[in-house]
Hints:
alpha+beta; SH3 type barrels; 3 helices; DUF2634 domain-containing protein; 29% helix; 2 domains
Amino acid sequence: MTKASDNNPERSYLFSVDIMVKAGTNGEALEQLLRSLNAGGYADFRIQSGIVLGETIQHELKTAKSKHQVLTDSLDSRIREYIKTSRLIRITVNRAKGDKLSVPCRVVNFDPDNELLTVYHVDEKSVYSFRLNEIDDFAD
């Protein structure tokens, strides 16, 4: 049995390179770089950094969340005090189509991430959940 000899004189070499590409956006620069690398006929390549995609989406999501946020630090502490003391309060709720409710209640739970307030209606002996943007007023 004979041993196969490697007659291929071509070998592989690995280089680490930083390349600066000027373009209007990061996406355009990435497209330009990929086009150049693909046209170069390289055996393989890997882009390890510099890809910044979705920045506009992230910015818009943060802006939208901060615009619609009803909860403030003082309101948060006030609601938590109602829960802690189990104080009887009256909330004025503005429901869909302009329906207004005046609810004598005790605050049972508060979810600050979803801005959701769960209350126990003392007259009806029922539990209701309201979004903070539906509540017009808290009366002690």
